């Protein structure tokens, strides 16, 4: 189960790296505006905020990825702690998005599905 949790952690990290790219580097482009539902003016006015927010997503991906590396290296305690810190934060951010922006619940589900599965499988794997 730990391996399945690690796979979902990697998928969550990859998704957050993609979100990092979209927010930090492609924010004002047509594709990113379509994904996030912003206008050109809104994107221009919020590009500094999105740039910063994108790096939050990147750092969560890095923490999660380092956690998986420790899991695979046999350091289960360190790996689990880092993996739970990264995926737990991703999951919490998805919950905040769902609760604060009902119109973005679909995005919250997409953002939170991999981290949720990672947490569930890692907990099961560590308890069994």
TrEMBL record:
Q: Which UniProt keywords apply?
A: Membrane, Transmembrane, Transmembrane helix
Transmembrane regions listed in the UniProt entry: 6-23, 55-72, 78-99, 111-127
Q: Which residues fall in a coiled-coil region?
A: none
Per its record, how is this protein called by name?
A: Epimerase
Question: Which organism is the protein's source?
Answer: Corynebacterium crudilactis
């Amino acid at each position: 189960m730990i391996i399945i949790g690690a796979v979902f952690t990697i998928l969550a990290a990859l998704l957050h790296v993609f979100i990092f790219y979209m927010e930090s580097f492609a924010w004002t482009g047509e594709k990113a505006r379509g994904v996030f539902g912003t206008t050109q003016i809104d994107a221009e006015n919020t590009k500094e905020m999105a740039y910063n927010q994108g790096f939050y997503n990147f750092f969560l991906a890095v923490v999660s990825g380092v956690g998986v590396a420790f899991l695979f290296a046999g350091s289960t305690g360190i790996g689990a702690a880092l993996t739970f810190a990264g995926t737990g934060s991703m999951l919490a951010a998805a919950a905040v998005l769902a609760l604060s922006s009902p119109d973005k619940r679909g995005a919250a589900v997409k953002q939170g599905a991999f981290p949720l599965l990672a947490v569930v499988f890692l907990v099961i794997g560590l308890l069994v």
